[in-house]
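User: Hi! I'm working on a homework problem where we have to compare a predicted structure to a textbook description. Could you give me the structure for the chain below?
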Amino acid sequence: MKKLTGSKTKTAVFISGTGSNLKNLINFSYKKNSPISIDLVISNTKKANGLTYAKKNNIEKKIISFNNQNKSEKKIINILYLKKIKLICLAGFMKILSKKFIKKFNGKVVNIHPSLLPKYKGLNTHKRALENNEKFSGCTVHYVTSKLDSGKIIMQKKIKISKIDNVSSLKRKILKKEHKLYPEAIRKILS
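Assistant: Happy to help. Predicted structure tokens:
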């Protein structure tokens, strides 16, 4: 996925929640040597707080409900093609994209997940890691496939779980790592 010299890869970020990774990717995209520009934010809910970052930065945003996944994905694909999007970054997007959708953007859909995959796919990763007395946790950037959190791993960052960690302290520690890891992984795949 080479980028043209001097141009940035047009990127869409898909969100469902607070958007801290979106905010981080927007800041990253403004760096002179960043390989991406954030040209579109897509959310499956108008309640996603992350939409405020799109608004603040004058980035086009679309809210697509996913009530009918097939129709919603067709709509998104049309928007992505119109905007000439070349990379999709999922950042807390709580919907599973279909095989058909992923095929259309083969190798160009990535996700960040708050665990050391293949461990703890899906939800409640911090709670599960703590309940299993894990010594380490972390985050993973991976390619998206139609199987939940199962695509090829691009990069991971590991953190030590301390005896006093709880779900919220672990979440905070891992989120800090996510904010470093996502830009690094994007650089890696676009270099």
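For your comparison, note the following. The chain has one domain: 9-190. Confidence is low (pLDDT under 50) at residues 1-5. Good luck with the assignment!
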